[in-house]
Amino acid sequence: MTTVGILTLWVSRNAGGLYDAVRLIAQALDNNSEFEVEIFGLEDEKTHQDLTGWGSVPLNAYPVRGPKFMAYSPKLVRALHAANLDLLHVHGIWAYPSIASLRWSRTEKKPYLITTHGMLDSWALQNSRWKKRLVSRLYENAHLQGATCLHALCESEARSIRAYGLQNPICVIPNGVFLPPESKPVPTQWEVPDDAKVLLYLGRLHPKKGLLNLLYAWDMALSHDWYLVIAGWDQNGHENELKMLSRKLGIQDRVIFAGPQFNTDKHASYSRANAFILPSFSEGLPMVILEAWSYGLPVLMTPHCNLPEGFQVGAAIQVEANQESIAQGLNALFLMSDNERQTLGIKGRKLVEEQFTWPKIAAEMRSVYEWILGGGSPPSSVLMI
To answer: Quick check: helix, strand or coil at residue 279?
Structure first.
């Protein structure tokens, strides 16, 4: 049996979108008799709370020594060496697991694959630019260049990888979702009138998500009876900035900050919403859009969300990452009939069913693993130049 190690930074909700992306692909890959999957990552204050989310996949979480932002964990390297892995799949860059991966590969003489999760996109590279330049010279460039294959979530990310100067083979395989259960609606943590319509944002509260522009656009949009629910975990105090702007604009009565949403709460939020929005400046391939479509929700998103298929099939309203364009998109949404919005959501659900379910994506990833370990012709997802 082939043993694949999946290496990530945090194995809890503190990883943001990577928590869902990594654990769900791991679970999908583990449902195969030819592969044995084992998770390696770092321990934080939320780890024990979120262990059950990994299901039956073996998980190893190691304590951090020193400042948390350095993510230094000497036990991680020793664990990788002891695991007798055939292949290592690394999710994310710019942190200590990259060093652990590089040391493991050089010692064991075995291959590794890196999923960059949008971290080489131009907007992402400009964020903490000097730190990333230093890290790239110290170890990350060597780590990236040594990968047998790099994994991009979309063609746009593959172009960003090439623009960074990397010539490795690149497999282009998207994120996915498991379709939600058909169950009775669950009450949300937040409250709006029963007959009110809800536009939902769910994700990190971070400047790159474009939420400041969204609040300005919400104020600019035509008079409406919708509520905006901003759900997610705060990063570096951005939530307070958003709340202050909401009060300044006088829109706080129709803007609800719902806090983090996981498991049943997350299901309840999607189930209660009438539409979803992600006005982001930069993404890899956002799982929240796929999740929204899986719940049959119409979506407003920017091209930076890297899901052009949504525009092509008529499942999403395109907005640019600026106030005026977002306001225009909001007005288009508000002026639609219920049937028109439902049609967008149905198209999104069909798109997910056809292209973005985890079993399909896991099969594509397994074919890449088999090619890395066995050679021969690369699968169709792999770009060699």
So the answer is: coil
Q: What percent of the chain has pLDDT over 70?
A: 99
Q: Give the per-residue SS3 of 109-166.
A: CCCEEEECCCCCCHHHHHCCHHHHHHHHHHHHHHHHHCCCEEEECCHHHHHHHHHCCC
Select from 125, 62, 63, 65 the least CA-distant residue to 94. 125
74 contact partners, CB below 8 Å, separation of at least 6? 65
Name the CA dihedral angle for 127, 128, 133, 137, rounded to a multiple of 10 degrees: -120
Q: DSSP assignment of 316-374, as one string?
A: EEE--SSHHHHHHHHHHHHHS-HHHHHHHHHHHHHHHHHH-BHHHHHHHHHHHHHHHHH
Residues 6+ apart with CB under 8 A from 265: 188, 189
**All structural domains of the chain:** 2-176+357-383 (3.40.50.2000), 197-355 (3.40.50.2000)
Q: In what order do the strands lie in the sheet with 35-42?
A: 59-62, 35-42, 2-10, 87-91, 112-115, 149-152, 170-172, 382-383
Q: How many CA atoms lie within 13 A of 319 on its CB side?
A: 27
* 8 A C-beta contact, residue 223 and residue 251: no
How far is the CA of 149 from the CAs of 80, 182, 273, in angstroms? 19, 38, 39
* 1, containing H or E segment: none
For the ranges 28-32, 138-142, 254-258, the lowest mean pLDDT is seen at 28-32
- DSSP secondary structure, 163-211, as one string: HTT--S-EEE----BPPPP-------SS---TT-EEEEEES-B-GGG-H
Helix (H/G/I), strand (E/B), else coil: 378 = coil
Nearest to 266 by CA among 245, 248, 243, 292: 292
Residue 335 identity: L
Among 103, 149, 161, residue whose Cα is nearest residue 370: 149
Which among 309, 308, 303 has a CA at the least distance from the CA of 283?
A: 303
* Two tokens, residue 354: 């056809």
pLDDT of 247: 96
pTM above 0.85, yes or no: yes
The answer to whether 56 and 36 are in contact (CB under 8 A) is no
